[in-house]
Design brief:
Number of strands: 25
Strand content: 25-35%
Number of helices: 9
Structural class: alpha/beta
Largest sheet: 7 strands, mixed
CATH architecture of one domain: 3-Layer(aba) Sandwich
CATH class of one domain: Alpha Beta
Distance between the termini: 24 Å
Oligomer: single chain
CATH topology of one domain: Rossmann fold
Shape: globular
CATH superfamily of one domain: Class I glutamine amidotransferase (GATase) domain
Length: 526
């Protein structure tokens, strides 16, 4: 247990963890204390509850970040990448690290979660190691920048490391110019294959699509236009600093996980949900989502291989519940390809949109897009709605169907708003799917004054399951604000942080997905 937890003794933390594990989270909210205690004795803790009862680590963030220049994207004093997007226990992951100038460094490995509010647990420290300066890659076909760095160190994942998102904090131990140490991250997923209640897919294809390392080389910086076809990016390179809507120094090396996805991870583990994690690439196996009762697409999940789409279509048919707590989802078909060494699934490239481009898209973005071959499948027929023009902007999230069960216990009325929660991209144009309902909608406006209609939808699956579309990248911002997280601001709009109504809606969705009754409106449930 963590002796540093404020206002919580060891006994209180254990009691909280056990209560959170009762059949599924927050059931005790609708019970009296005697009933909760009885269930404590009867119900075993799930692996996530047990994991989060272990001591957390407050010192896991980046303290000193030094970019190569003002407005730069990289930290050449120390930077690195992993040999795999995801890895299972017993498998080995390699870390490719460069230090310029060559100095000693160490690598600390943390698993992200709740951990009594600390946000991470420290697993191990590797080093000190001697760093070397590794070469910048040449510009290859499709503007590909693929590093072929030597391995600095490797790690075989122990059997007791739980599925989760892991950060490796790289720190120089000496600095030849005498100005002190500097830091950056590497990021990877530890996966498992166990049946689980909730499967959390990180959106790492999209992190890589927008990654501008080393010097403005993303899928969006081709001279032909921001949406040019046949442009590629490699997972064999470090993640540079996030380069879109706001400055976030914690993003150096960590993709976009801390920006859009970590608040949901933190919240799920805080409430004891039985959650497992996977990368985009893991959905190439159609069995992957079927091991869960609820599958989550989170944050900015724009780039998919068509095989991911097919896997989730099959999962819906098999009775899995899908929660798209995301936006701009499945917008571009991005096939996986091997790297130069033949390692599978280390490159993605922009091939074509999911679904035919609308006349409005062609009018507004046509000069920057394509040329594309035939489009992929219509993403709206999976999600419930599509990305529309303008693709970005900001708005309040507005309840339009308060009688729907997702709003049970929220007290929300028709027209009631959650300030700034829609952004900075969204879904609109509800699909023609039998039984589809629009549960939230409103107007979004971008910085240029263009307007569009966002829509949050839910529709029934064939086996009593459902598919929910939150219609915002920022849904997770309404759930928690963990250490290392910054609230965004874009197009003159911003979310306000955790909101009890969004927490309750998310609990209601998950409880229904897990086959539970929602608690009574009088109960808090958050």
């Amino acid at each position: 247990m963590n002796d540093d937890l404020p206002n919580a003794s060891r006994r209180e933390v254990l009691k909280s963890a056990l209560a959170a594990s009762l059949a599924t989270p927050a059931v005790a909210a609708g019970m009296n204390s005697a009933g909760a205690k009885e269930m404590e004795r009867a119900a075993p803790a799930n692996v996530i509850v047990a994991e989060n009862a272990l001591p957390g680590e407050r010192d896991w963030q980046l303290t000193r970040v030094r970019l190569d220049k003002t407005g730069g994207f990289r930290s050449p004093l120390i930077e690195g990448y992993c040999s795999r997007q995801s890895v299972s226990a017993g498998e080995t992951i390699e870390f490719k690290v460069s230090t310029n100038p060559p100095v000693d460094f160490q690598l600390e490995i943390f698993r992200l979660g709740y951990y009594g509010g600390a946000g991470a647990r420290k697993l191990t420290t590797i080093g000190p190691l001697r760093g070397t300066t590794q070469p910048d890659p040449e510009i290859g076909p499709q503007r590909l920048r693929e590093c072929r760095w030597t391995t600095s160190t490797s790690l075989t994942i122990p059997d007791d490391w739980r599925s989760g998102v892991y950060l490796g904090r790289l720190s120089t131990l000496t600095d030849d110019d005498g100005t002190g140490y500097t830091q950056s991250y590497v990021v990877f997923v530890v996966r498992d294959k166990r049946p689980c209640d909730v499967l959390f897919q990180v959106s790492d294809n999209t992190w890589q699509a927008y990654n501008r390392w080393p010097d403005d080389y993303s899928l969006y910086t081709d001279p032909r236009g921001a949406h040019a076809a046949n442009v590629a990016v490699s997972f064999d390179r470090p993640y540079g600093k996030y380069a879109q809507i706001f400055e976030s120094p914690q993003s150096v090396g960590s993709g976009e996980f801390l920006l859009w996805e970590f608040p949901l991870c933190y919240w799920l583990e805080q409430h004891g949900y039985d959650v497992s994690y996977c990368a985009n690439v893991d959905l190439l196996d159609p069995a992957e989502p079927r091991r869960a009762k609820a599958f989550l697409s989170v944050g900015h999940d724009e780039y998919w291989d068509v095989r991911q789409y097919d896997a989730l279509k099959g999962a819906v048919d098999a009775g899995v519940n899908l929660l798209f707590l995301s936006a701009n989802t499945a917008y571009m078909v991005s096939p996986f390809e091997p790297n130069a060494a033949g390692q599978a699934n280390r490159t993605i490239w922009r091939k074509t949109p999911f679904g035919a481009l609308s006349e409005r898209e062609i009018e507004v973005y046509g000069h920057t897009m394509g040329p594309f071959p035939e489009p992929g499948p219509d993403e709206g027929l999976l999600i419930g709605a599509r990305s529309i023009v303008p693709a970005n902007g900001g708005a309040d999230w507005i309840c339009t169907k308060p009688e729907h069960w997702i709003f049970e216990g929220t007290g929300m009325r028709r027209g009631e708003r959650v300030p700034g929660l829609v952004g900075w991209e969204f879904h609109g144009d509800p699909a023609e799917i039998a039984g589809l309902e629009v549960v939230g909608e409103g107007n979004v406006r971008n910085a240029k004054g263009l307007q569009a209609r966002w829509t949050s939808t839910i529709y029934p699956g064939p086996k009593g399951n459902f598919v929910f579309n939150a219609s915002t990248i920022w849904w997770s911002q309404g759930l928690s604000s963990p250490p290392g997280h910054m609230l965004p601001w874009s197009h003159g709009s911003r979310p306000h942080g955790p909101d009890a109504r969004i927490e309750r809606i998310t609990h209601n969705l998950l409880r229904r997905a897990l086959g539970m009754q929602t608690v009574s409106p009088a109960s808090d449930g958050g």
